[in-house]
């Protein structure tokens, strides 16, 4: 995995500098180059590629609320699910490059970019990177009625009941599906995949018993997990998640297994650089906001601050990581 899951002292100091710079900028002074009105002078559409209830939406709410308060215009969430995030990605890539349509990127973007020519920040030239937001571990979740309480018990149960288990997917090309397929391949098990238009609807069906299991990001799963409606058997990262220290890594049983979710922000190619830089400063400042930091920590999210170049480099590293990992999954979607 790309080694950016912790915040270096240098990154924090740089982020603090951005925070101070952002605080000094009044919205009325943040005009785009050559624009007649300051940016933003009207509501901004923040496009989320999945149905409500997932990690992308949960993280976006926190950032958009702060941007709205800081910049004086509403940053409005617009869920556009479909095709594992590609519907939203293509729609934003084709939008006017004026800063008023923003894409919340996720691991699905880098997975798709690793497999085919899809719009992505700093890859196809149709989108440009703005800022990273967070990295999240995933949890292997099961319905609480499934008669297993450990990862070893789950594997034994799956092997004893080939093809009888159903696993939820947030859509083709998503980290949820690819994590499940990698687990299936390494674990030598078989199950049926049920496709959803985001992890939110899949989690609802998992809690109600319509499906047996799924991988999902900690931010999306935390409420159901802490309410006891689902059970977590393992975490997808090699190390235990600080927010869930009692949950062991999948790698303890399947040493080759490791995945995580990666989230950021992009805008259409051609968006004026002053707007890109303003959004980058404000998002980085948001990552230092004590309330946002607290809420990130509660759901196991690790902020990934940095300038646009750092985000683009991380994005490229993620593409290469998944380009090596995807063939191991035997995934058909």
UniProtKB/TrEMBL annotation:
Quote the InterPro entries the UniProt record gives.
BUG, Bug_dom1, TAT_signal
**What PROSITE patterns does this protein map onto?**
TAT
Task: Could you list this entry's UniProt keywords, alphabetically sorted.
Answer: Signal
Query: Quick one: signal sequence residues?
Result: 1-30
Listed SUPFAM superfamilies: Periplasmic binding protein-like II (SSF53850)
The Swiss-Prot or TrEMBL record describes its family as follows: Belongs to the UPF0065 (bug) family.
Protein's recorded name? Tripartite tricarboxylate transporter substrate binding protein
């Amino acid at each position: 995995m790309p080694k950016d899951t912790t915040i270096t002292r240098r990154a924090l100091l740089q982020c603090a500098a951005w925070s101070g710079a952002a605080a000094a900028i009044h919205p009325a002074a943040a005009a785009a180059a050559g624009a007649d009105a300051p940016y933003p002078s009207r509501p901004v559409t923040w496009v989320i590629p999945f149905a409500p209830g997932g990690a992308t939406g949960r993280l976006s709410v926190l950032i958009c609320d702060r941007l709205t308060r800081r910049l004086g215009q509403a940053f409005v969430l617009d869920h556009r699910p479909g095709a594992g995030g590609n519907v939203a990605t293509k729609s934003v890539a084709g939008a006017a490059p004026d800063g008023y349509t923003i894409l919340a990127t996720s691991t699905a973007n880098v997975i798709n970019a690793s497999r085919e020519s899809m719009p992505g920040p700093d890859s196809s030239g149709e989108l440009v990177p703005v800022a990273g937001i967070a990295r999240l571990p995933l949890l292997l979740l099961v319905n609480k009625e499934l008669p297993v309480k450990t990862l070893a018990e789950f594997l034994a149960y799956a092997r004893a009941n080939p093809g009888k288990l159903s696993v939820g997917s947030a859509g083709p090309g998503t980290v949820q599906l690819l994590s499940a397929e990698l687990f299936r391949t390494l674990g030598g098990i078989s199950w049926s995949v049920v496709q959803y238009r985001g992890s939110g609807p899949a989690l609802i069906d998992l809690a109600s018993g319509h499906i047996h299991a799924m991988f999902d990001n900690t931010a999306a799963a935390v409420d159901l997990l802490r309410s006891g409606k689902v059970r977590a058997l393992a975490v997808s990262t090699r190390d235990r998640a600080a927010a869930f220290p009692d949950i062991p890594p999948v790698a303890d049983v399947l040493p080759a297994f490791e995945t995580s979710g990666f989230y950021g922000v992009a805008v259409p190619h051609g968006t004026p650089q002053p707007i890109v830089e303003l959004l980058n400063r404000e998002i980085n400042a948001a990552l230092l906001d004590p309330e946002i930091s607290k809420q990130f920590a509660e759901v196991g999210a690790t902020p990934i601050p940095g300038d646009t170049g750092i985000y683009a480099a991380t994005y490229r590293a993620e593409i290469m990581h998944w380009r090596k990992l995807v063939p191991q999954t035997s995934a058909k979607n």
